Amino acid sequence: MNAIEAIQQRVSIGVLGDPAPSEEQVEALLAAAVRAPDHGVLRPWRFLILTGKQREQLGNIFVSALRQSNPDLSEQEAERAACRPLRAPMLMVAVAEVEEGHRIPVIDQILATGAAVQNIMVAAHAMGIGAMWRTGDMAQNVHVKEALGFAAKDEIVGFLYLGTPAGSIKRVPTLNPQDYVRELPSQ
To answer: In the prediction, which pLDDT does 173 show?
Structure first.
């Protein structure tokens, strides 16, 4: 599959099963990630690759974070949070380890990490690996960041769920790119 086809055909896959990507496939995904545009050549992206029991550890971190903000968290809510990382056989946590006060703005560092994630998503699609990019409250939670070994200033850009596509794959409607182009306002 060429690059244009991979970009134009990529879809998020919500139902993922075994097997997880192989070590060789993970290396290829990371090689794609580090080719992302990076203003200032800071390479702010960091990746945690979680499989097996590590996914359960992440679920426990999620529950702990929720209990800090809500001591009355129900067991049902705790169980739901604990199970989130089990939705795929592999998770890749993408974090922008930002340098505050650098001449390159923090937003540019976060965007570079987002570009790295997009490269992973497209490469995964081209390799036949199912992928889903998720964020949510846990991506913004300081307890989660610190439990994963990062500082409060750092930004979790995504929890990438990776595995073998299972079930039906949704069709994305054909979009007209011109619908998203705007004209410069007249003065």
So the answer is: 82
Cα 95 to Cα 131: distance, rounded to the nearest angstrom: 17
Average pLDDT over residues 157-173: 90
What's the CA gap between 122 and 32, in Å, rounded?
A: 9
The pTM (predicted TM-score) of the whole model is 0.94
**Neighbouring C-beta atoms of residue 176, cutoff 10 Å:** 7
For the chain, first and last CA: distance in Å?
Answer: 45
Domain limits of the chain?
3-52+85-166
H-type alpha helices, 10-92: 23-33, 53-69, 75-83
Residue 72 phi/psi, 5° resolution? -95, 20
> Which CATH superfamily hosts domain 3-52+85-166?
NADH Oxidase (3.40.109.10)
pLDDT band, very low/low/confident/very high, at 167 (cuts 50, 70, 90)? confident
Phi, psi of 180 (to 5 degrees): -115, 10
